[in-house]
Structures are given as structure tokens and as C-alpha cells.
Amino acid sequence: MEGLSNIGTIKEILGRHGFTFSKGLGQNFLINPSVCPRMAEECGAKKGVGVLEVGPGIGVLTNELCKLADKVVSVELDKRLIPVLGETLAEYDNFTLINADIMELDLKAVIEEHFKGLDVVVCANLPYYITSPVVMKLLEEKLPIKSITVMVQKEAAERLTAPVGSRESGAVTVAVNYYSTAETLFNVSRGSFMPSPNVDSAVIKLVIKDRPDFELANERDFRRVVKAGFSQRRKTLSNSLASSLGIDKPTVNKLIEKAGLPPTVRAEKLTLEDFGRLANCLTEYENEQ
């Protein structure tokens, strides 16, 4: 259906289905007609490609994805949007809607069932409240996907695409850089949505690496070290790790020294490789216990 970014059309459709916006689900629908076509193109939607979408809303982005890709599967939590999407996407036979919580869904099974023989990319306008959990799920489950293109709050975009070791970096930054190469594609003003949020947005793309830049003995320990390191940003790495990992401080200091790091370093100063070495030292220590 054309004109899905028109305010009048949106209000007419939603009114017909008795739909009201849910703040709890972070629902802000796009009304800027230039955003979704650009997202669909830059995410890599084309012949031979299947697209997994999270949170289709009323189908503004979905509509553009269906025009370009061989198959689009959208995961939507809000049951009230099922009849809305049934109307707005009725013309597309390459569209499938799954009414489920993305965080509880077996995405490998979904991809195996719906995208046989296709390259798979993810494209979504993510609700702000669930940005990091969704991105981490997509990365950590090592799905057979080529890239993740998402619209997120601008502040989150800056954090997700920041260089590791920069002031803006955090635990999610380290994870993103381990699994992918991140870049900001373009910014989206708050006036591009209905209702208008209080912040601007940005579209970012994470291109999944064929293999990580270095080898980890145990990825779980890597995630533990990263999470623990940023758990108390104002404290030294030594204090943060001792507090969060439940390991005595003298042992933590030995691990930090063995990883070739200064004793008073803070997590935000570490490189991706620093975290990798430290995680491998933790794994070696725990294997010896």
C-alpha cells in the first residue's frame, strides 16, 4: 500500500482498526517518506535476499522491503497490529508476519524455515527501550545473517558505532566491534515520527564479520569480563572485576598484569584486543581451579 507515511492515511487506517499508540512498546511510526526507501536499499534488500524485520509497526518500512527482497519476515509483539498489517501489506505474497516476542523467538529456526537458499539481512526500526537486548541477541546467537541495519536513538547509535577505547564506548560497543563492523548511515530527525519522540534517531549498519579478529578461549568469559569491566565505570578495572566477578583483588591484579595491562587502567581505555587477552587469562585461571 502506498502513502503509508502520510499522516492522514495513518490516522485513517489506525482509526478504522481502533488502534492507539502504546508508550510501553515504544511505538513511534515513521511519517518521513524518504527514510524507509533509503533504509531498504542500504540494508541490502534485493533479489536473492531475505529480510528479517523486527517491529514492523503499520508496515511503512516493510512495504519498501517487500518491493526489493525475495522474502520478508516481520516479527511483531503487538497483536493489535495484525489486522492493520493484513490490510497495509495485503498485496505482497512475499511477506510473512510472526506474532511473537523477538527476545523469546528461536531465530535460527525462523531463518531455516523461511529463508532457504537466500542471503539474510536484518532491517528494523527498533523501539528505543529494547535496542541493546535485540542487537546483542542478533549478534551473540551467531545467526546466518550478513548484516543488521537498524534505526535507533541517536545516542544509542553513537555508543554502538563508537571506537572501542573511546569515551563513548561501553560494554555493547565492545561486543558490536567483536562480532561486526559498525557504521552510521544517516540521521533521522524526531519530526520524522508520529507521535514525535523527544530525541533524534540514526540508522546504523553492522556488517557481520566472517570471523572475529582474534581467537577467544571462551566467549562467555569474554562477555563476563566486558560486562564486569563497565559495571562501575568510575572505578578502576581491578575494582570493577573484583566486585562483579567475585574474584579476590590480588588475583584480579595478577590477571590484569598477565594480560599486559596497567594496574590502574579503567575499562573504557581498553582496546578490543585488551579485553580478549584479559578474557583468555580469566579462562586459563578458572580452568586451573
Features:
289 residues, alpha/beta, Rossmann fold, 2 domains, seven-stranded mixed β-sheet, two-stranded antiparallel ribbon, 9 strands
Summary, kept brief:
With 289 residues, the protein is an alpha/beta fold. It has helices spanning 7-16, 35-42, 60-68, 82-88, 107-114, 131-140, 154-161, 171-179, 219-229, 237-245, 249-258, 272-288, and strands at residues 29-30, 49-54, 71-76, 95-99, 119-125, 147-153, 180-188, 193-194, 201-208. Helix 4 (82-88) links the parallel strand 3 and strand 4.
Task: Set out the fold topology.
Blueprint lengths: L6 H10 L12 E2 L4 H8 L6 E6 L5 H9 L2 E6 L5 H7 L6 E5 L7 H8 L4 E7 L5 H10 L6 E7 H8 L9 H9 E9 L4 E2 L6 E8 L10 H11 L7 H9 L3 H10 L13 H17 L1
Helix pairs in contact: 2-3, 6-8, 8-9, 9-10, 9-12, 10-11
What do these coordinates show?
- With 289 residues, this protein is α/β, with parallel strands linked by helices.
- The protein folds into two domains: 7-208, Vaccinia Virus protein VP39 (Rossmann fold, 3-Layer(aba) Sandwich), CATH 3.40.50.150; 219-288, Helicase, Ruva Protein, domain 3 (Orthogonal Bundle), CATH 1.10.8.
- It is 40% helix and 18% strand.
- The chain contains twelve helices and nine strands.
- It has helices at residues 7-16, 35-42, 60-68, 82-88, 107-114, 131-140, 154-161, 171-179, 219-229, 237-245, 249-258, 272-288; strands spanning 29-30, 49-54, 71-76, 95-99, 119-125, 147-153, 180-188, 193-194, 201-208.
- The strands form two sheets. Strands 4-3-2-5-6-9-7 form a seven-stranded mixed sheet, with helices on both faces. It has a two-stranded antiparallel ribbon with strand order 1-8.
- α3 links the parallel β2 and β3 (71-76).
- α6 (131-140) packs parallel to α8 and α9 (219-229) packs across α10.
- The longest helix has 17 residues, at 272-288.
- The chain is elongated.
- The N and C termini lie far apart (62 Å).
- The model has no long low-confidence stretch (mean pLDDT 92).
